[in-house]
Each structure stands twice: as C-alpha cells, then as structure tokens.
Amino acid sequence: MRYWEEEVPIDETMDAERRFHVIDVGNKTVHAGIADAAKIIDHRKMPSSPEGLDEGLGDLPGSIPGVDIGGAIIASVVPSLNPFLEQLCRERLSVAPVFLNHETDTGIRIDYADPSEVGADRIANAAAACNLYGCPAIVVDFGTAITFDIVSGDCVYLGGVIAPGLDMASEALSEGTALLPRVERWKPVSVIGKSTEDAIRAGIYFGVCGLIERVIKELGESGLEGRIVFTGGGSEMVAEAIDYDVIVNPLLTLEGLRIIYSRIVPE
After folding, report:
1. CATH hierarchy code of domain 2-100
2. CATH of domain 109-255
3. Pick from 57, 211, 217, 266: CA 20 to 30 A from residue 87's CA?
4. In this prediction, what percent of the chain has a pLDDT beyond 90?
C-alpha cells in the first residue's frame, strides 16, 4: 500500500494570476483549496451550506490579503448551491467560476449512456488518477456514497459502481429501526461486537471492505484492471484492511480540478 498526502506551504513569490480556487462541493462537506498549475497550495473543509461556504471560502488558507486569485473551478453535486457559489465567487472572490461538467475538455472521453449523469467529482477523480498515476485506473471515492470510477488505458471513462457510504449505512440502520443507534466511529475493535454500537461498526466496516474487494475482483475477472486509487473520508482505514495494493490520495478531487483548470485555461 502507498499513501500520499502533502501539505505545501504557500509560495509568496508565485505569480498571483496563475493562482486559482479549486472547490469540490459534496452533499455534506465542501473541500476547497488554492492551486497553481503544479500543485495544491493549501486547502480546507467546510459544511455544504451557504453559511459554511460564506465563512469558509472567505477565510480559506491561502487567501492572502492583497493577493488576487486568478480564477476558480467548481465540481458540484449539489445543484441548489450553484447559484450561491457563483455569486460568492464573483462578489467575494472577484472571479468568474468554471463549473466542471461532462462537456468540459478534460482529456477523458466519457463512454456513458447519458454523459450528463456522471458527477463532476467523478470526472475530476478520473482525470487526476490518469494524470498522476496513469491509466487504466479504478478510483474509489468514500463520500456520502461510495463510488467506483473505471478508466481504460486510453483514457476513456467506462462507467462505475455506486453504493451507500459509511455514514449513509449508519443513518439507514438508525432511521429504519426503533432501537439501533447512529454510530460515527467506524473501525471496530473486533469482528464480534460486544455492544450494539460495536456490532454496527463491525457490520458496516467489514461489509464495506468486503464490498470493495468483491467489486475489484469482479472488475478483474471482466478484464478491467488498473491502479487502484482511494480518496475521501475513511479511505485510509479501509485501505489498511483489503488485500489489494492501493494508492490513497486525500486530495484527489482537488488535484483533478487543478489539472483540468490548467488544461482549459492555459497560461
């Protein structure tokens, strides 16, 4: 297993016009950062709400007083927030944002019955995996849902798999039963739970690990193999438990946005 995570100090000598915002809007969390063509300079997370965005983006590490940011690219899976995001970027950040979608020139062809159904975050993940690690690739993103994205050796997005995420599984058990509580810490002490909460943790954790391994196995038996790249909350924890070599990159979606923006807005 190989892990990748890097905190990069801000380079004050960098050309401010080549700095830009990269913003990944999920159902519960927004992951936003400052980037240049070569790297993510700094980043932070905030709630997926107008209040969270207003406070978080305005106080984003790397938003240095007196230094302009030259643009912004957004991957959003929450359409209701998009008008607010555009207004916020124009009024608070003084940039006109680019919203990533299936029509954006990413260098990856989408082989999907309806390409508009592919989420912007999944497109960014595919672009990042191919550019950083090479194709073919299997990207697994641990968010509200667990998504698999499969990219061929010639940079074609072939499709994927969508399953409930860790939080969603816990919420479903809690909301669908009278006595089961909602749990938040995922790694169990043992496969045999000695309390209701530990039993739920074991079921969700080992269930997700089994899901991941079975999907990867089925893909391999279908002739679809490649580098396996994990991202999102809980990815390192699951990577430790499965019998595959995995690259874990917590910044994968932001890296994809950085790569795509540098492609479509050249120097």
Report:
1. 3.30.420.40
2. 3.30.420.40
3. 266
4. 67
